[in-house]
TrEMBL record:
Pfam families: MFS_1
Protein name, entry field: MFS transporter
Membrane topology according to the record: Multi-pass membrane protein
Taxonomic superkingdom: Bacteria
Naturally occurring in which organism (per UniProt): Actinomycetospora chlora
Length: 467
């Protein structure tokens, strides 16, 4: 890998790749836009169909289904051609969005979100898998950056679309737009992915791993929703036990979600996944920034919303710049340190400052932290995609490589669940005092970022020194 030249953006859209790249970008954009559009229209939806007591559940059930579905991505791709698998994922996602669009009540909306999450999890999982299947290794880092760019587009399109339609009393059409967009993307899938197929057999169904992953995600979701500190803490501890059980089960089973190389002595893949989880988990703080901005800094909802996407904007900018880097190992070492410095700056700002000065420090810290994530992420993702190759005998194991690619999304979604639950527990430590809750929140994520930065060096061993 060290001597391979990095591909250019022009090569990403060269003849023969344009269709696959368009599908990769479009499917990722559907999943990302849904994440932001739902958050912006939920108040209007709840006002019309009721179910205020279950306000957080549409996001929770979506994420739960997405975690489970993403863990099955490699098996789905092994069973059917990539084009057919992608059409199934788009179809399930669109079906869920259609249920959401016509939902007369909160229970029906939750069913739609569950279905949509299953399709969305497959779409997200197949994003990284398609990078490996359809692009040469020299373009894997660019492909990872493209996925990040779609999240950047979603930062603008999602809240804007949801807010605009909700304000006009037409929130249902936001889900309708996702249905139409899914159909448009689906129309080009047959020609774009007609040659794409994972060259492997399905293998045994990873029932034990899927059950443990699903249970951990479910418990984390409940912990994140719990208003009681004891319940949230117990839930977080139970989830940790389930995740440890998942790792122990993966080490000894042939029906695994993670590639065998994750547990091979001396392999850096476990550290790559671990650092990826830390980066994504710490980014979960952005979900709580608008709340802290309004309650502690006195920001208007719009201003607090923009502050909430500061970390995401930094992430996208960092990825687009870092994707062209010639020294990826250095980027993987520096990125987590920048994330730690940014989160510490925010935590200090909450304690030491107030007013506009505090908001300015928060913004700088969040953008810097996000830039740190983006600096490391494309190289971690590209290294994880190829982390299972080759086997000790020197032969390429396509099944293990497919698992390595799909596991990036599974790890990412589990990390989001952990970060959300950790944020909920941190807020509960404030015992109803907004300032105390904000201090606990940012301090907790700062400590996690600092400790996570310690995994950068072993993770970097799986990243090439130069490209």
């Amino acid at each position: 890998m060290g001597g391979e030249q990095a591909g250019s953006w022009a090569q990403m859209v060269a003849p023969g790749r344009r269709g696959a790249v368009t599908v990769l970008a479009g499917g990722t954009l559907m999943f990302a836009v849904d994440t932001y559009v739902t958050a912006s229209l939920l108040p209007s939806a709840v006002a019309e169909i009721g179910g205020a007591a279950f306000y957080a559940w549409p996001t929770t059930v979506f994420l739960l289904a997405a975690v489970v579905a993403s863990s099955l991505t490699s098996r789905v791709l092994a069973a059917v051609p990539a084009g057919r698998a992608y059409l199934v994922a788009l179809g399930v996602f669109a079906a869920g969005a259609l249920i959401d669009a016509v939902a007369p009540s909160m229970p029906v909306l939750l069913v739609g979100r569950l279905v949509q999450g299953a399709g969305g999890g497959l779409l997200a999982g197949m994003g990284y898998a398609l990078i490996r299947i359809t692009l040469p290794r020299s373009l894997w880092t660019r492909g990872s950056a493209l996925i990040a760019a779609m999240w950047g587009v979603a930062l603008v399109v999602g809240p804007g679309l949801g807010g605009l339609l909700a304000g006009a009393g037409q929130w249902r059409w936001a889900f309708g737009a996702l249905v139409v967009a899914s159909l448009l993307i689906g129309a080009i899938v047959p020609s774009a992915l007609h040659r794409a197929r994972a060259r492997t057999s399905p293998g045994p169904f990873p029932l034990g791993s899927v059950l443990l992953v699903g249970a951990a995600a479910a418990v984390l979701s409940v912990a994140g929703l719990a208003a009681d500190l004891l319940v949230a803490g117990v839930g977080l501890a139970a989830a940790a036990v389930l995740l440890v059980g998942f790792v122990a089960h993966e080490r000894r089973t042939a029906a695994a979600v993670l590639p065998r190389a994750t547990f091979r002595p001396g392999s850096p893949l476990r550290w790559i996944y671990g650092l990826s989880a830390v980066l994504v988990g710490v980014s979960g703080v952005e979900a709580f920034v608008p709340l802290a901005g309004q309650q502690v800094a006195g920001l208007a909802p719009v201003a607090a919303g923009f502050l909430g996407v500061a970390l995401g904007a930094g992430w996208v900018a960092g990825e687009m710049i870092s994707a062209s880097a010639r020294r990826p190992r250095w980027r993987v070492l520096a990125g987590p340190g920048l994330l730690a410095a940014g989160t510490v700056l925010v935590a200090v700002g909450v304690v030491a400052l107030d007013g506009s000065g505090a908001v300015a420090v928060w913004a700088v810290g969040l953008v810097a932290g996000g830039f740190g994530i983006g600096t490391a992420w494309p190289h971690l993702a590209a290294s994880a995609i190829g982390g299972a190759e080759p086997d000790p005998d020197g032969e390429q194991d396509e099944g293990e490589a497919d698992k390595a690619s799909a596991a990036v999304t599974t790890v990412q979604m589990l990390a989001v669940s952990v970060g959300t639950a950790l944020g909920g527990v941190s807020l509960a430590l404030g015992d109803g005092d907004p300032l105390a809750s904000a201090r606990w929140l940012f301090a907790t994520f700062a400590v996690a970022a600092v400790l996570g930065a310690l995994t950068a060096r072993p993770a970097s061993r799986g990243v090439p020194v130069e490209i």
